[in-house]
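Because showing beats explaining, we think one record worth quoting, sequence and backbone structure tokens together, and here it is:
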Amino acid sequence: MTNISPEIEARRDRAKEWFESLQTRIFAELERLEEEAPADLYPGEPGQFEARPWTRETGTGGGIGGHLKGRLFEKAGVHTSAALARFSPEMAAQMPGADKDPSYVSASISLIVHPRSPRVPTVHMNTRFLSTAESWFGGGADLTPMLDAQRSQEADDAVLFHAAMQAACDPYDPEWYGKYKAWCDEYFYLPHRKEPRGIGGIFYDRHNSGDFEKDFAFTRAVGEAFLDVYPKIVRHRMDEPWTEADRQEQLVRRGRYVEFNLLYDRGTMFGLKAGGNIDTILSSMPPMVSWI
């Protein structure tokens, strides 16, 4: 049994509905890009998402895993989940409010896109609502160019991406972008390599301003910003040819992505320990990598 109030469950249901509607729109936009990609650079049939519903083994809930293997996008995963469950004692010790009651509800969307072209950046985005005895939103979006020549925050793609994230933040609080950009830079960092994973974006967790409607609107704005800016970046880059040396640089950079996700990513650890779906949690792994 859980001890979550009807009001909190209703908020979770609203978040779940939003995340699932955003998932459907992202499916459609990435499939549209698959159709638009030039055939000389991306031979074969355009990819389409396969939606795989799943059910939690503990508590109630589940989600929809969206998986695509295409010609433009070598691998993409766009997943939603929702739960009404109880944390294990180990997890409860790490969650605000769970020491009073380990019951929780959650809803989320999480995505990763690994383009085939080294010229098109990899991207990650997730947003979520979680409530124990306390409630909060978390998430963000970050961009990872594969080529060193594009891995500057002054590069065109980085400027466009950061402008979109700032536009999502500023209407709600002009201080949030600077705060969450800095948090992103700190979080998506590989200490053992002494290098950032990419060019950043925003990252926020345990976000609760005291105004649920404001925080929910902000989280929706992050999703809308992603849906607007990433297709622009893809369309800007997908016509550019690449070399075998570019491809090798991409595969090595993807190896860094694997290292971060398996060694440091809190979302990966949370999903595995909270009884999530392994296929969706580990779909962030790129299809081909190289270590040299």
Observations:
- The CA atoms of residues 75 and 287 lie 7 Å apart.
- The radius of gyration is 19 Å.
